[in-house]
Write a structure and sequence with these properties.
Helix content is 60%, strand content 9%. The protein is α+β, with helices and mostly antiparallel strands. The chain binds glutathione (GSH).
Length: 210
């Protein structure tokens, strides 16, 4: 059984969403997101750099949310939500999976980190990161002006991952992204699997309080 160590609103969301969309069973282990807990030897034993999420599957323990997504697809996806390696779309599938985390989520994460922990006088950092996030959204808008999903007419796991990051963009930059990106976001968040993921995500914080 997959066990996802997750804190509400954080990157485990994209892993939970892939499981929900595929119908793969999983359990959530709520994680106290405080800096103190993430610095504790108990948490560092699971994630040596003190970040969230972590996932286990039997004896296997891993971190990095997009790698987790890919693991779930490869082990349990039976070919769904990703093109075959022989498919002409495969290279772009990889491109969008990586873009979602390493290019798009990165400046947004810096805004969150900056607001939480850094000096308020460094507000120009926030402005710079908002600009970087917006450049990503503009690139996405051009894609979604031509097609409904990143790879064309068929949805893949990168769409789920990107829509998760869009939530961070809307929170940290603007609630009104360009029209084609907003339509994509509306399409993705209308999925029944999104509602189930949001419910599981919200319940994670409630379980910690209980
Ligand atoms: N690339 C990593 C990033 C993990 C990450 O930055 N997680 C955030 C929560 S979404 C975190 O733990 N932040 C705490 C910090 O950086 O201090 C992944 O995708 O799992």
């Amino acid at each position: 059984m997959l066990n996802i160590y997750h804190s509400t609103g954080t990157r485990g969301f994209r892993v939970i969403w892939v499981c929900e969309e595929l119908g793969v069973p999983y359990e959530i282990n709520p994680v106290d997101f405080s800096a103190d807990y993430r610095a504790s030897p108990e948490w560092r034993a699971l994630n040596p750099v003190g970040k969230v999420p972590v996932m286990t599957d039997g004896d296997m323990t891993m971190y990095e949310s997009c790698a987790m997504m890919q693991y779930v697809l490869d082990q349990y996806g039976e070919g769904r939500l990703q093109p075959a390696k022989s498919d002409a779309n495969y290279a772009h599938y990889l491109q969008w999976c990586w873009f979602a985390e390493s290019t798009f989520a990165r400046p947004l994460g810096e805004i969150t980190n900056h607001r939480r922990a850094f000096q308020p006088q460094l507000d120009d950092v926030v402005a710079e990161m908002q600009g970087r996030g917006t450049a990503c959204v503009e690139a996405l808008d051009a894609v979604f002006s031509r097609q409904p999903y990143l790879l064309g007419d068929e949805m893949c796991a990168a769409d789920l991952s990107m829509a998760y990051v869009m939530r961070g963009y809307k929170k940290n930059v603007t609630e009104t992204p360009p029209a084609n990106v907003q339509s994509f976001f509306d399409r993705m968040t209308a999925l029944p699997s999104f509602a189930r993921t949001l419910k599981a995500d919200t319940a994670t914080a409630e379980r910690l309080k209980a």
